[in-house]
Design brief:
It contains six helices and seven strands. By secondary structure, it is of the alpha/beta class. The longest helix has 19 residues. α1 links the parallel β1 and β2. The strands form two sheets. It has a five-stranded parallel β-sheet with strand order 2-1-6-5-7. The protein has a two-stranded antiparallel sheet with strand order 3-4. The protein is 29% helix and 17% strand. It is elongated, with a radius of gyration of 22 Å. It has two domains: 151 residues, Alpha/beta knot; 58 residues, Trp Operon Repressor, Chain A (Orthogonal Bundle), CATH 1.10.1270. The chain binds adenine. Adenine binds next to β5.
Length: 229
């Protein structure tokens, strides 16, 4: 998979993709991420990418021309399965959206800033609008990093057995069960006996029941329609 990200603050995206699992995905040739500076597609001495809103009011609006130039240049290189705009008024991101997006070849993500982009950008180019939650960030970059991370770790081969996504929270619609590691006793506090039994079927059963219990307690909304209510 290849992900292109368009940003006016590319520096914000330098860190996340050069560490740990995402770095390994790139090294294994399973995923690549490139960040493009929108200002490189602006014209004039000022390299202007935003302007006042028609109709007045506070806040700047990202102009259509540099964005159109950037998207059209990138489209000459590849065909995108989705052109995504990160915005608080988009569809809320969740694990099922991550699963679906992890199966495509090429994604383009546009990060909003200021008051957002000229509506015509959304009408002409954007195929999917994503929010990572009901709060407002100062730009779409951190949201884009969240989405890219959640997607890339689901690409087959990116995770190994130790980091497998199959047992993640939400992957089967439930929260993950509690986990424990050494020591088996800490200050007199033990761990569930069954986990020391070596009995795989019993351990699986305990984990499933603990998942259901935890989900009922913390996120009863997730239980609806699972059949385990
Ligand atoms: N840009 C600003 N806030 C955002 C959010 N919550 N989700 C996605 N993009 C954003």
């Amino acid at each position: 998979m290849h992900i292109d990200i368009i940003s006016v603050v590319p520096g914000l995206l330098e860190g996340p993709f050069s560490h740990s699992i995402l770095k390994r995905a790139e090294e294994k040739g399973l995923a690549s991420v490139r960040v493009h500076n929108l200002r490189d597609y602006a014209t004039g001495k000022q390299k202007q990418v935003d302007d006042y809103a028609f109709g007045g009011g506070a806040g700047m609006v990202m102009m259509i021309e540099p964005i159109a130039r950037c998207i059209e240049a990138l489209q000459k290189e590849r065909t995108y399965d989705e052109i995504i705009y990160m915005t608080p008024d988009g569809d809320t991101f969740d694990q099922s959206m991550a699963n679906r997006l992890s199966q495509v070849e090429n994604l383009l993500i546009l990060c909003g800033h200021y008051k957002g982009v000229d509506q015509r950008v959304r009408d002409l180019f954007i195929t999917k609008e994503i929010s990572i939650g009901d709060f407002v960030l100062s730009g779409g970059e951190l949201a884009a990093a969240v989405v890219a991370d959640a997607i890339i770790r689901l690409i087959p081969g990116v995770l190994n057995d130790e980091t497998s996504a199959l047992t993640d929270s939400f992957q089967d619609g439930l929260l993950a069960p509690p986990v424990y590691t050494r020591p088996a006793e800490y200050n007199g506090i033990g761990i569930p006996e069954v986990l020391l039994s070596g009995h795989e079927a019993k351990i699986s059963e305990w984990r499933f029941e603990a998942s259901v219990r935890r989900t009922k307690e913390k996120r009863p909304d997730l239980m609806k329609g699972t059949g385990w209510e």
